[in-house]
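Attaching the record inline, Q. Sequence:
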Amino acid sequence: MFRPSHSLTVGNAKVTLEEGLRAIAGGETEIDLCDVVAVDSAAVATLLAWQCAALNQGLTLHFSSLPANLESLIDLYGVTELLAPATVIVAASTLHH
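Structure, as predicted:
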């Protein structure tokens, strides 16, 4: 499980992005955000880049313990479905029954 530091902002997004990409390249599929308290739009971009990298490797990436401020940004930018593809597939499949 990969755990980013307490801050995921423009000030450290590049380093955190690279750390997460290395973890994903090593087969990691769980990112625990329980330690993250400071976020900005760079956090959303970082999560999207991690999700894209995982999907390109055929992996399903799971984010856990998202702080409320990050959930708010994800909702604001309308990318919830992009960060939780398994949930979207389940929800879509139940609509046809």
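The longest strand covers residues 30-32. The CA atoms of residues 74 and 80 lie 6 Å apart.

More tomorrow.
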